[in-house]
Amino acid sequence: MERAARSEGTRETKRVFVTLVILQLLIAFSAMAQDRAYVWDGNTMQPVTDTRDLACRKWSIWLFTSDDHTKVPGQQWGNIVGDSEGDVMNQLKNNQEIEDQLKLAPGKVWLTNYNYIGPICNVKPFDPDINDALDELEGLSRRLNGGYSMIRRLWPGHKSELEEQMTQLLENIQRANKLRNDLLQRNRSAMMTINQQLDEMMHSTQSLETKSQLITLRFGSGGNLAAKPPAGNGWTQQQVNVLGSNISQSIQVNVGQVQVRQTVVNDPNGQGQAYSFSTQSLNPATISVQSQGAVWVVSLRSTSRNVSMQITNGGGGVTNEVVSTIQLYFSSQAQAQAAAQSFSQLAGH
After folding, report:
1. pTM of the model
2. Does residue 268 have a cis peptide bond before it, meaning omega lies within 30 degrees of 0?
3. Is 344 exposed, middle or buried (0-12, 13-18, 19+ CB in 10 A)?
4. What is the DSSP letter of 141?
5. What would the CATH number be for the domain defined by 237-346?
6. For the chain, does the N or the C end have fewer beta carbons within 10 angstroms?
7. Angle between helices 159-185 and 85-101 (to 10 degrees)
8. Domain map of the chain by residue range?
9. 183 to each of 53, 113, 134, 193, how far by Cα in Å?
């Protein structure tokens, strides 16, 4: 009996030892899996542990519904896309934070950002039309995340007032991620529908940006209020002769939104043009300064699909057009360069 007891004790010790070994292996495997990245060539997925020498066209994270435990390629509901591994992981973290702020438990929300594969290095080049659309969606996502950054600072003290705006931001971020997924899995006949959805996304993003800015003004003193041109720089109010017309130009920047009005001096009909755009939508790489005769021109390009411009003609009639490039006029090179420098600092804020 004593021998049997010792034998049973030995077996129990072995069981405990084996269990501990298995647990240690599971913990090690889990840690390794969390640090793992993947390479996708359009057909197969390969895990990698070192991403330093990868030649990636784009980085992405595939998002799966909360009840999808298989995570089969092609079954994802959304796709986060960016130019670097850090970029997509930061986007994922922001999206998860919004779910947390709204207390959407990972097991409850269907289109979750917690059930994912990534980061993924895409080595296969995209078609030019897909790449252009992905770049536009990336710009929209930056603006939506900017809106979230404004709201996040105010969230602790104003949850009930801000919950609707936070929910709409999450819905639009999810919509952008789903649209990216459609782009990467689409056939060519779907591009017209995708472009229409991009137009709708641009308008809804603009509306959410405006609401975020108004909320910031109402509940806080932070947000992008610091994103203003330096005072006394002499370029926010200008009177310049452009092609024989005396143009009065007014530029105002408030909470990341820029309003520009250019009117012909002493014209009784108010001939000229007016438009507004977000500093977050500016692409700093496209800001340029050029001379046109005695006038210096600063060109700004928006990453959104278009900027609405209201034009008043000499007869007093008003028309609306959409543009992607904005031109500002200055009477001196120093003023133009000061404006270009300020807008370069404001871009993306």
Report:
1. 0.55
2. no
3. middle
4. H
5. 2.30.29
6. N
7. 140
8. 33-219, 237-346
9. 27, 19, 8, 10
